[in-house]
Amino acid sequence: MKIKKAVIPAAGLGTRVLPASKAVPKEMLPIVDKPAIQYIVEEAVASGIEDILIITSRGKTTLEDHFDRSPELESRLLASGKTDLYNQVVDIANLCNIQYLRQKETKGLGHAVYCAKSFVGDEPFAVLYGDDVIIPKEKPATRELCDAFEEFGLGTVGIKPVPLELIHKYCSLDATQLREGIFQVRDMIEKPKPEEVITNYAILGRCVLPAAIFSVLENTKPGAGGEIQLTDAMRVLAQREGMIGVEYSGKRYDMGNKLGVLQAIVEVGLKHPEIGEEFHQYLLELSKSL
Ligand code: UTP
């Protein structure tokens, strides 16, 4: 079944990037000249998604403004002959059909996804975490997950190995390789204690889920951090029918974490068509004094 809908949870408080995220949503933090959320929407569109629901919260209206038309700015750009910039600005508003829904309390990622129940209906759908930007290498990560969902007919999670000493910050997966980049997932534990670690493979940023996840979420109690964890609900699916892990080919940047923001800016900046070369020279010069 073709996946046409995507949910982007972007309602979190972003405490790890405070004070930047006090008044600016962390999903609006830029990588050079484009906010994180735009990279994510572009990935969804490039993956064949037609309808997107962004889960927002109080103080996040700039997310909606970013994907709206901006008449005053547009006419100023046109009048001053900045046609390229004008086209870029208008294109953002035409990227996709985007709807918004407010999560009234930040009760966790699982709760944010549950808010999308009536938008999703009974179709499978993609979830793109609003603070995880994945720069594609081959196909966009969401497309790689949708391909696996269509092939196996099972919920699919985007996975990567993380350093074993850091796995307690993520979730640990019982993942067995089926072929290159594709794993059978039978269990997962959110924020594992040392004795609970199964492998150093974790879910990072993307999943494609059957609508059955909603009835599971309905009965999911708050877990790690007192929040309703999406992982706890996916664990039920993994144990019940199995899930597929896709080690996506792109590079993920965690925009909810200060180091992740810097890594994204440096690595994307080095390849930027406008300032990449100059930035490269600057970094070479700077590195002499490190
Ligand atoms: P995170 O746990 O990384 O976001 O959730 P957070 O809660 O903002 O992080 P910190 O710990 O306070 O820094 C992953 C994604 O899920 C969204 C976040 O916006 C982020 O994009 N989220 C999280 C929600 O939409 N609602 C929630 O209740 C929690």
Describe the structure.
One of its GO terms (biological process) is UDP-alpha-D-glucose metabolic process. It catalyses: alpha-D-glucose 1-phosphate + UTP + H(+) = UDP-alpha-D-glucose + diphosphate. It is a single chain. This protein has 290 residues and is an alpha/beta fold. The chain has a single domain (5-287), classed as Alpha-Beta Complex (Spore Coat Polysaccharide Biosynthesis Protein SpsA, Chain A). The protein is 35% helix and 24% strand. Strands 5-4-1-6-11-8-12-10-9 form a nine-stranded mixed beta sheet. It has a two-stranded antiparallel sheet with strand order 2-3. A two-stranded antiparallel ribbon has the order 7-13. It is globular. The structure holds uridine 5'-triphosphate. Uridine 5'-triphosphate (UTP) is lined by residues 9-16, 55, 103, 106-109, 111-112, 129-131, 256.
